[in-house]
Amino acid sequence: MMADENTATSSQPVENRSADPPIFKHLSPKTQGLLQKVQKHRQEQERQDLNTMTANEQTFIAIKPDGVQRGLVGDIISRFEKRGYKLAAIKLVTPSKEHLEKHYEDLSDKPFYKGLVAYMLSGPICAMVWEGRDAVKTGRAILGATNPLASSPGTIRGDYAIDVGRNVCHGSDSVDNAKKEIALWFKEGEVISYKHSQAEWIYEKP
């Protein structure tokens, strides 16, 4: 996140006058400094309002090896973007067996566990973090049901998958699990915080 510019003091005129109205250059340095402080406070308040509107909930979404190999990455990203969610992190990875066993440790007693891990090891995975209001719940709705045959047309799995063992993508099933999965797949500093320029066109101010 970029640091704020230094606030002008009573002895310092505002440096960037090109964006200021012509009358601004006729004001005293003290008045310029006061106006800059007011502007910065207003901008900070707007950022806080947008943060309140979006709630900043994050979810972990992974495009599995079949989705990557079939060239579905661009379309899946587009669906989240068009819905209004903000991409906070993305990378193409080939995780280790130990990493995947950690990710799916809650399924370790299931008969399909070994096959699932082997499938996830078969190719690169596109790991992402998406951010916005109700990102976890809505993210899973965008993906569709775990079994593609039970997924509605218009969802990712409903449009692009048939077999539950090749269901294209993974999405966090709870806010708590999203936090755990994000921490597992991304290092500190890889999840980026920034102002979403379209937020005011997506969320109504309270």
UniProtKB/TrEMBL annotation:
Residues 1-26 are annotated as: Disordered. Its EC number is 2.7.4.6. It is an enzyme of class 2 (transferase). Pfam families: NDK. It catalyses: a 2'-deoxyribonucleoside 5'-diphosphate + ATP = a 2'-deoxyribonucleoside 5'-triphosphate + ADP. PROSITE patterns: NDPK (PS00469), NDPK_LIKE (PS51374). Its cofactor is Mg(2+). ATP binds at residues 64, 112, 140, 146, 157, 167. This is Nucleoside diphosphate kinase. It comes from Lasallia pustulata. The lineage of its organism: Eukaryota, Fungi, Dikarya, Ascomycota, Pezizomycotina.
